[in-house]
Amino acid sequence: MAETQDTPRSDDSGSIDPLSQLRNDYKNLSNNAQQLLTEKLYLENECTRLKKRVNSLDEEVRSLRKPPFVVGHVQDRVDDKAVVRSSNGTVFLVTMNTRIDEEKIKPGARVALNQDSLSIIEVLGDSWDPIVTSAEIIDRPNSSFDELGGLDVQIKELRESIELPLNRPDAFREFGITPPKGVLITGPPGTGKTAMAKAIANSTDVTFLGLVGSELAQKYIGEGGRIVRELFDLARERAPAIIFIDEIDSIGSKRLDVATSGDREVQRTLMQLLAELDGFDALDDVKIIAATNRPELLDPALLRPGRFDRVINIDLPNVEGRESIFEVYCRNLPKKDSIDTRKLALSSEGFSGAEIKSVVTEAAISAIANGREFCLDSDFSGAMTKLRLMRESGADSPDGLYG
After folding, report:
1. Which pTM value belongs to this model?
2. Which of 14, 163, 315, 378 is deepest in the core (most CB within 10 A)?
3. CA 397 from chain center: how many Å?
């Protein structure tokens, strides 16, 4: 067999040829050197990557250790300087960063100031209070006017006051009249005031801002008025828009001569709301809907025409209204025979729309609990009896709950 190059040659006496031994050692050393060189390149690349990571972390640490900027507002420009009001209310004449576009530094702009020199570092965008930004309804409710029974007249008035000016503004200009600014919906609890607002939000393709009046009552002086101002500013920016204020009596109650500091702050919020409703800034494409079940508490200035041009009252439904509400809630209800909604309406005297919905829900629960796939008349009669007992015992009030 022929000898390979890796195998050292030997002479006849059995000794290894030195030259072959040297070639073999050289080849082994070359392979080891190549392997070490590859490992060296890998480690150098890994070292470079770790150095970049260390530099990035050092930069992040230095950034976190930097003193915070002071937020202020520009009040005036004086040559190459600016007059700013800091967050604590103090006014300063400061220098500006030359890299900033001077057109952005104008009165009212929100800026970041250096903590030591109070120089303007950068211009910040406008900010909105979290209460204001969270008021915008992104996912529209699924409610529609078809689901509101017995409110045909009220729905017509609401759509004429809100939808008509937004859809046909030219018609109002041709008649030379100012479209209604706002609508106040009043009525007992459970009659469908908030449901009408949800339906109008679903039927119109505009920005909808909804919040509860109590959210505008703040602890510190001026905070409630600022939130009201920002709410209307956001509505004007996103116009056409609708603002819905539920339970407006929480901030719109009558102003009294004798009041606590908290009452005076609520009154300041109310005065800001009155100014926004009928002030110098026009509300062309912004409509206001408010709801309350205590209209007798509202301040007269809030009810005059020019602020809430229409007051839509929703009373407890009559027989026809209750029949219509039963038809709406029983529309998709599994039933063996047709449900006599007229009979149910006659036997539910004094029930509100919410209570009628509760009757239908209780009837469905009774059918499910008894293992049936449809509702019977006995389910409705039992549900109605249960609800009457709850009303008579006063379980719908705190006094009735706790004795």
Report:
1. 0.65
2. 163
3. 31
